[in-house]
Structure formats: C-alpha cells, structure tokens
Design a protein that fits this description.
single chain; alpha/beta; 6-stranded parallel β-sheet; 8 helices; disordered N terminus
Length: 267
C-alpha cells in the first residue's frame, strides 16, 4: 500500500508539472507557441541588412502621425561634416556601457536603436544612455523581420517598444529602424502612424559577421562622408570587435573634422 501511495503521488506531481509548464518550454512535446515577448534565440537571426543612399527629407513634424514614406531615410539632411553613429540590438549589460565610455571619452553623441525586450530587462541602461545625451530609438520588440509577419504583429512590435520608451523617458521615440532594414509598405505606414521616421544607413560595418575590428574600422573610415549614418551593434551577439573598432575610428573621424551627432528632426 505504501508503494502504491507513493506511485499515485508521483503521478499527481508529474501531472501538475505538465499543467504548469509554458507552451514554449522545450521537452514537453507538441508545437511550441512562442510568446511575442519571449527571449530571442541565440544569435542566429541575423540576415544581410538592406542599405542605400536616400537623404532624410526636411519638414517632418516633431510629434504625431507623419508622412508615410516609401522607403527609409539613409543619410542626414543636416549641412556640414556630420556623421550619425547608430547602434542596434541593445542594450547589452556589458557592451553598451563599453560603447558609452568610449563615446563619453570623446564627447560624441550617438543613437541607440533598442530592442524592447532588451530595454525592459535593462532599464538602468536605458536611463544611462539618455543621461549621457544620446538618442534612443525603436528597433522593434523582439527583432522579427517585419515584412514577414502579419500587420497586427508589426504594430505590436513597434507599438510596445514606443510605449516602453515613453514610460522610461517621458517621450516617445521619433525614429525607428526595421530589423534587417526590411521595411515594406505596411510597416512604413504603421511607423508613420506611430509618429516615427523610418531609418536605414549608408555605412554598414557588417560587424554582426565578426570580421575583425580592423575590418570594421576600415569600413567606417573608408566610407565616411558628410551626412553618413553608420550602422553598428551593441547587442545581438559578441560585439567586442565593434567596441575595439569604435575606440580606433572615433578619434580619427574627429581628427578628420567630423562631428558625431544623434539623429535629429530635419530643419
């Protein structure tokens, strides 16, 4: 009787464990139903991003719905030798502070396109970025390819991150970048409805491929031009090469007469 009672208790415990397990927990069989805010898989998502040379137009309102663009802005419209350094996929608890230290050392300002769930896990870093005078922008909630998901998911991905940034900083983001740069007509429309301008880049460091810090810095220094928007990453993988490259090319860009600026409303 004691053995039968122990067996019954064991079966009840297993039943409760199965009932409590979330649908996306591996090892319980069936098709995993991954929630929108589930932690992303290991750094296997990266595709070759899109790029181009369109300039950022002037006259956009600072708040509220915006003109629906046909493609992302890829360079600055500001005159002078200005470059916008942008960092995607963070914040990251180790790499973002390293980037911030280098920027602070040289008095440079940048734009951080944050992933909503990463920002939610690292609220102190979101504040640290803003306190250093950098701009925080929208890079979706969980980094899906927007042109491959339903419109309702696109709105959730961008809208949830807008709400998180507004709660953290008191103002919604003014710019968004689609994961992989993969904008399409519905996502561009939703971006405008949420009051953001869609952004791309004109210099792609391809640092997500981990080509070596020497290659990354060479791509920036060789491609530098007035109005350039540089794409790099402070999250989404091991970005130590990005940090090393930034420490090398940033003072050299300054020596060449460039000023590092965050993205700003066109004038």
């Amino acid at each position: 009787m004691l053995l039968r009672g122990a067996a019954c208790l064991g079966l009840v415990g297993v039943h409760r464990l199965l009932a409590a397990a979330p649908a996306h927990t591996p090892g319980f069989g069936g098709v995993a139903a991954v929630a929108d805010d589930a932690r992303p898989a290991a750094e296997s998502y990266r595709l070759r991003p899109l790029a181009g040379t369109e300039r950022l137009p002037s006259g956009a309102p600072p708040h509220g719905p915006r003109t629906v663009r046909t493609e992302a802005h890829l360079t600055l419209s500001e005159p002078g030798s200005k470059i916008a350094l942008t960092f995607d996929d963070g914040p990251h608890p180790r790499q973002t502070p390293a980037v911030l230290r280098i920027l602070r050392r040289h008095g440079a300002r940048a734009t951080f396109f944050v992933i909503g769930e990463n920002a939610g896990w690292n609220p102190d870093l979101v504040k640290a970025i803003a306190d250093d005078g950098h701009l925080i922008a929208n890079h979706s909630w969980s980094h899906p390819q927007l042109n491959r998901v339903p419109e309702a998911r696109v709105r959730r991905e961008l809208g949830r991150t807008c709400d998180l940034i507004e709660r953290a900083l008191g103002a919604p983001p003014r710019f968004a970048r689609a994961p992989y740069g993969a904008w399409h007509a519905p996502s561009l429309r939703i971006c405008a409805e949420l009051g953001m301008e869609p952004m791309g880049w004109s210099i792609d460091t391809l640092d997500w491929r981990e080509p070596g810090s020497r290659t990354i810095r060479s791509r920036v220094l060789t491609g530098a031009h007035p109005g350039a928007i540089v794409l790099a990453h402070d999250g989404g993988g091991d970005r130590s090469q990005t940090v090393d490259a930034l420490a090398h090319y940033l003072p050299r860009l300054i020596d060449q007469g460039y000023t590092m600026v965050p993205l700003s409303e066109p004038t």
